[in-house]
Amino acid sequence: MNTRVPYSEYMYLPTVSHQWSTYEDILQPVCSQRDITPDQLREILQSVAEVYTRKDRATHFYKELPRMLWKLPVEERSYFLGVAVPEMAKRATEIESIVGAKTIILLRKRRGGGETRTVFFTPYQASALLSLAFFGVPMYWPDGDDGIGRPFVRFNFAHFFHDRHSQIHADTDRIEDASGLLQADFANCRVGGGALSSGCVQEEIRFMICPELILSILVGAVDPLADYESMYIHGAIQFTDYTGYASSFSCSGYVDKVAAQQSDCLIVMDALHFDQDLVNQSTQYDPKHILREVNKCHIAVTAPGLPEGVALATGNWGCGVFGGDPQLKSILQWLACSVAGRDMNYFPYGDSRVAELGRVALVAEQEGWTVGDLAAKILLYVANWANKFQDSDFQHVCSALTVRLSGESL
């Protein structure tokens, strides 16, 4: 989606733009065309792009598209070009009647801020907006300034010392298969990350297999998530299965999960970025960074409107390209879920470093600690743990956790 980003709490549909009639002239014939070729589709998309950019750039955008389409199986290619593309053109040209308004609310930080904001789309409205995006028709932004209010939210750690730990369940499946649970999106601070540009790790993969999530980029990625903010998305459906990760990622065919996923909630929470430099990675053991991560996860699982008593399905949050320590992050998420009164289902994706997470839970239970006890131990001894967290299992962590709060050294 091609957009400018001035300060505004809403955007206009392209129907209010003086260029809309040009887009309509390009797309209207496509609505009834059932024999579109790959080269013709490229020309259609280039024509749309030429309305707002130079011809040479428009040509560059889509030059590889025909070759990709010719690689599809004949049946899939015929359906896409003869059925899907005309239907998308129809929905794009009827966007205003489908949405029922000329504007779309943005999830922006309102001046004076502090409230929860919600944007709702029906599946049909979502498909129409995604159809606009497919053809590259840009939304229209009103003029405005770039001022943003930034309210501060306090996190009450006093609750830590009254709450018992929640339960941890270790799972070997994938987070998106945890139907009925709150499912973590290991997000970029700009929602969607590289889903529409580059990158193909946990968040981008989720957006590719659940394309309705792309609308969150439209309404929510104008401002990056602040340390006190999270987002949750309800009802986005997975349409395709997949194999691989990053460079090995590949869609593996249609999957019908509509009935099972209508009640699923995606919890969007961004971790701090510690790059692969060892000096920078070590800063994650700084107490202020530890508190930030616990705070972020706690905010994410206590958002207004989330169903109570439903566990969080999560895993190695911020531990891939963001360089986080999965042993530390697993404990921090556990602390946050415990304060929130939610169980945690942990999906390690085969990472042996967190294979014994349950052992830490057992130690905490045997010692009778509250959440506050465990949090205090982490903050007290974390400087000494910086190198020990990198071990292959939780041996040193468990040893450290059994040290009393009397100040006994490790």
UniProtKB/TrEMBL annotation:
Keyword match Ubl conjugation: no
Pfam families: PARG_cat_C, PARG_cat_N
Domain PARG helical: 75-165
Chain sites annotated for binding substrate: 188, 202, 245
Enzyme class at the top of the EC tree: hydrolase
Residues annotated as domain PARG catalytic Macro: 168-355
Coiled-coil residues: none
Keyword Lyase: no
GO CC field: cytoplasm; nucleus
Lineage top rank: taxon: Eukaryota
GO biological process: ATP generation from poly-ADP-D-ribose; carbohydrate metabolic process; nucleotide-sugar metabolic process; regulation of DNA repair
Sample GO molecular function, one term: poly(ADP-ribose) glycohydrolase activity
Active site (record annotation): 185, 203, 204
Protein keywords: Hydrolase
InterPro entries: PARG_cat_C (IPR046372), PARG_helical (IPR048362), Poly_GlycHdrlase (IPR007724)
EC number of this enzyme: 3.2.1.143
Family, as annotated: Belongs to the poly(ADP-ribose) glycohydrolase family.
Name by which UniProt lists this protein: poly(ADP-ribose) glycohydrolase
